[in-house]
Structures
1.
Amino acid sequence: MEVDRRAFIATVGAGALSAMSPEDKAEELEHYMIDMLDGGHDHDAEEPLSEEEQEVQEVRNARGMGRIFQPRSKPLEPMPANATLEDFFRLRFAPANHVLQSASHAMQTGQPERTILACLLHDTVQTLVRADHGYWGAQLFEPYVDERVSWGIKYHQALRFFPDESVGYEYPEMYNRIFGGDYVPEPYIYEAYEYARAHKYYMESRMITVNDTYAFQEGLAVDIDPFIDIIGRNFKTPKEGLGNDNSGSAHMWRTLANPERPL
């Protein structure tokens, strides 16, 4: 995907961007690219927002909030009583082009099913929350997947900033082009990288970053259908439905299902 630097800065605001930490800048760029891949920043709006409406929206919505909390022109479709992961992909995560492309690339290159699943899930939590999405994503999926999958999702957030020649992963040139060559991650990102680099599951997370870089292709549509069997074999869907099983992340699934619930 080609990113117009001026267009990106215009959507954020030069002043807001200059005040962001390096990690926040990288997060904002990724959100921008995912939104563009999915068809624009305001998927539900019938007409583009005016300047005044954009200013009001920026005041109302913290940048770390997920898309599900953004203003919409029509209500969300209700979730089924015993909702599955496929239901959440269809009714909450969609269009999810980025993660579908990532999982498709992992499948095409012969990665194991757990890696394909990790690529399919790694950024979906951004529907709920964008800040520290690797950590939030790991917590969302941990009760239902192999520990290597959730571990990989957690640390891909840090590893994307650090090259690994052994698997052909380079520091994203786009970061240099958008933010300049002096861009550096925050200290906790360095600490997470050092920990992950020495861990036995390092490659689980590294392969997410490898397949992540191929997942911003405009005009490439990927459906959830090729991954249904992989989900069935590798995702432990509770019989009560996600959000109703009293797991450690059930409250997160309930929030995704009903984000406007006041209490």
2.
Amino acid sequence: MELCIFTEPQQGASYDDQLAQASATERLGFDGWFRSDHFLAMDDADPMPGPTDAWTTLAGLARDTRRIRLGTLVSSATFRHPSILAIQVAQVDAMSGGRVELGLGTGWFAEEHAAYGIPFPAKRFGVLEEQLEIVTGLWSTPVGEYYDFAGEHYTLERSPALPKPVQPRVPVIIGGAGPRRTPALAARFATEFNIGFRSEDTIAGTFDGVRRACEQIGRDPATLRTSVALPMVVATDDAGYLRRLAAIGADADSFAEVNIAGSPDAAIDKLLRLRELGADRVYLQLVDLRDLEHLELIAAEVLPHLH
């Protein structure tokens, strides 16, 4: 099972903060570094120094790292025109030497759209579906040929469909717990299906649903990677555990109910259960990205038991 680090820079992080965590992620042997794509801090977090754009950040990290996978979990379809997104991701893929992955979703955080004047239509699933078709269509169009698309939300005429990514197929991550439309989209377009912040029972049922969606369109379910994203807080003693929970504003009474929490041994047990449920990859959400000692503890005490 692959283990990737996943963080939330909108909660207050500079590029240098993110670079420090990504560099440690690479040095310590994790498989990838992924970030959210948000422009507004949530809850009562200190937002300073302000938001950073996900794909601008990943472009910098593409040049400042050498091995780890890099991507979004997930970009919002409301933020970028799909043609521009396809160009951005292809360029960052080239800058990284072929290490980029695109997570794409409908977007959900209405307040950040209002704060920055970004349109937030009530119905967004059709926008996401067209974006997925356009992005993957642009990348897969042979060099020298043109790509056309006419949909409800977007129209492209004689696009040269350039540039191409370095990877023959950039991994596309689609996620969610919806019972019908999301699994169907994942079966059509995704290389990975992700579910986050849910119980083990829900994860198991959702994985079963996306496998059925693959079978319904004649796709081998084994060709679709399945993954889980969960917040993680571990420590070697109670005081350290409570301190790390307090740093991210988490509730000590309920945090461990669903998340990866407690001692390193407890974290290993949880991750092994997720592997048994079919998770090929787990994203360890570390909200306090400046706590590099936390990352080092996970690398030393947890990572060797899962790789």
3.
Amino acid sequence: MLQTSALVAHAANLDLVIRHVLAGLGHGIHAGRERGAGVEFSEYRAYAPGDEWRRVDWKLLARADRYYVREAERDSHVAVWLWLDASASMGEPSYAVQDLDKLWFARTALACVAAIAQRQGDAFGLVVCSGGKVDVTPPSRGPRQLQRVFAALARTAATGELPDAAGLRPAMQLMQMAPAAVFAASDCLDWPSPLAEALQRLRAQRHDVRLLALRTQAEVDGSFPSGVAYRDRESGEGLHRLLATDREAYRANVAGHHAGVAAHCRRHDIALAQAIIEQPLEATLRHWLRVPGVRG
């Protein structure tokens, strides 16, 4: 289990990570495109990470010595929105896998969803919540958009708090312009929150809303190093030591909090996938894409 996470956590090239994770995944986000008979060829475009090899035009490769993909599907009317919680708590590291933290796992999972959206021809955009502010990459299609999203994810750092409702309003207005599939990744430690309310409103507007709630293994079982003191990452306040006698109460509190997140998602028909970042990313992504419960 840890070997796969360790390998991808140490990979410097995001494109290679995406290819590794998506290899054999074999399915898309939704059934919004049509393939096969009755759909006319439209154009060639350069191969991009995440494209299916079966769509490469091998005859054109022989002539041009470059990989090109045949675009022969009609555009989908669904916009895919990637929503990243990059508040300070997302910088929480794994104590089992070096260089792995919640933010790395979240933005890599979202990059995989972006690659799938690009592969199936959807418009996709990105919302990053960090430092009390919102950074929006408006939705578009194609390989250049994929590289814009990759670049925005790569430069994101975990800092500050989540924005308030007023800060989220411009992104919410953009999402209301077309039917959307919303993929949000967060540790859900600040819950209920303006982010939770925003996802609830989007689901009430009949968008497909999917939440990935992340924890480290240490957060699940309280296996933090003994004698180490911790401050609240977002407020900088408080100094806490988790003693051996505190672990049972800590585990119960954490489990209760995330049970509350799950109950909230069930009430509002938000599809929830919970994951531990030390688990293989491919399995988490497969579950996130297939998690039941989202209805039109």
